[in-house]
Amino acid sequence: MDKKYIIANWKMNGDRHLIQQYHDFFSQHTLNHHVVICPPFSFLEQIKHQNYHVGAQDCHFEKSGAYTGSISPTILKGLGTKYVILGHCERRSQYSETNELVYKKAAAALDADIIPIFCIGETLQAKENGQTAAFIEKQLQESIPKTQKKMIIAYEPVWAIGTGKVPTPEYIQNVHALIYKLYPKHPILYGGSVNKQNCQAILNIENVNGVLVGGASLDISFFETLMHMPKNNE
Ligand code: PEP
Questions:
Q1: How much is the pLDDT for 228?
Q2: From the CA of 214, how far away is ligand 1's center (Å)?
Q3: Which sequence spans correspond to the domains of the chain?
Q4: Taking Cα atoms as reference points, which of 43, 104, 99, 52 lies closest to residue 76?
Q5: Distance 107 CA to ligand 1 centre (A)
Q6: How many angstroms separate the CA atoms of 139 and 156, rounded?
Q7: CATH superfamily of the 5-227 domain
Q8: N or C terminus of the chain: which is more exposed, having fewer CB within 10 Å?
Q9: Within 13 A of 234's CA, how many CA atoms are on the CB side?
Q10: Among this protein's residues, is 45 annotated catalytic?
């Protein structure tokens, strides 16, 4: 298996105990993957470790200003943050984030030399209406700035997030092929109910360059499973 991206999205979870578990595990093991941990903002400094990178779960599009409760890419950069998740479906549904807003945030993140991790994915309704491809293409075109800079795309079907429902390998492969056709230079990750049991099979699907893991990343044993997967080529 090639070197993959393993991105942990803690969402609004985690505490000192979990941070300690991550530090203990990663002090003893080096995974031959690109590991990125995205905790809540308040843990961004504490979670740091030499064996993985750190990412935020969102950012504002301005550098500074009167934006209570927000954080700018400039501040994130100052904290040593290398990545930022943008357009997560929970941000889109709970905070009404649009493709246009995601685009502005991405441009600001890129300007601050932070690598955006774009979350895109169809709703259940779009899937049931046979509109998955059109839905995804629109999200990609409207939210991703045209640039040669590094960016990551995470395909996260909304109906698979936190539900325990995972698309079939063929379904994932088809959507990844579609994204790859439009964005051949960017790593394309799958996210949505990835766990210890299904992770390896998902990572083996063509054009799946990694996984974005929510709930399962709150249990350090998820990473132990990765230790036992077949060795990487690079
Ligand atoms: C996510 O929040 O990006 C995610 C994929 O969540 P879960 O793994 O819990 O479905």
A1: 78
A2: 3
A3: 5-227
A4: 43
A5: 24
A6: 12
A7: Aldolase class I (3.20.20.70)
A8: C
A9: 5
A10: no
